[in-house]
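check these tokens.
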Amino acid sequence: MNCPHTQEPLKEWRYSSDFLIAPTTKIIYNQQWQSLNYDQDYFLKEYKNQYQITYLEDEENLRNIYKKRIKVLKKFLSFHSSLLELGCATGFFLDEVKNIFSKTLGIEISTFASFYGKKKFNLNIENIDLIEFISKNTQRYDVVASFYVIEHFKEQKKIFEFISKTLNKNGLWICSLPSTFGPLFMFHPLQWKETHPKDHFVDYNPKALKTILKLYHLKLLWIRPASYHQERTKGFLNFLTPRMYQLYSDFTCFGDTLEFIAVKQ
């Protein structure tokens, strides 16, 4: 198997043959990837098993996260008439931006989540699989948003090409992803392996993203960690004050998750 972005031959990751790694970019691919059923149980039971609260009960926290992302996004917006969100779930983010953009569309595979967003918030959400949507979409947008979505798909090259093609010139892609440049992967690789979601096909890192985005006529504008877990670190990072650790993490984008904004050139 070769890396879908660079065509570089992949090698077995030293800690497990279940994962392949690109020697140059250090992108990780999951050979045991499995697709899951993202319907009501995913947003209620499975989410609660992980976070001790259902997705719907976590609405206030999720909206606060989205408000922070929107604040950053506004700094880079020169025009903003249309936005497409891939994997919009119940539409909390779309509901937060509907007064900023004149046209919004959310794509969501879950019938439960898409119906909830349409009924409760009167949002424009299409209940469809992302890859199916990619094959038929002809519209262009000023902003594409995807939060913890694209890592679930095997068709990575197709998704990156789609986002680049779908964005208007100088359009923005705001995205969040798991990251291997973080304390869990770097200091506890076996734990990372054991807790790795079965439905995550790929894991990126900041350096790799900066490299491969260029292949799709996208330029990285902003990147930062989306979480801070100093308790998972070892060595000198343990001795930093929480504030110093956050500054270090922000400067290096060191975190188990990351978020970025890229512009279409």
The radius of gyration is 18 Å. The mean pLDDT is 95.
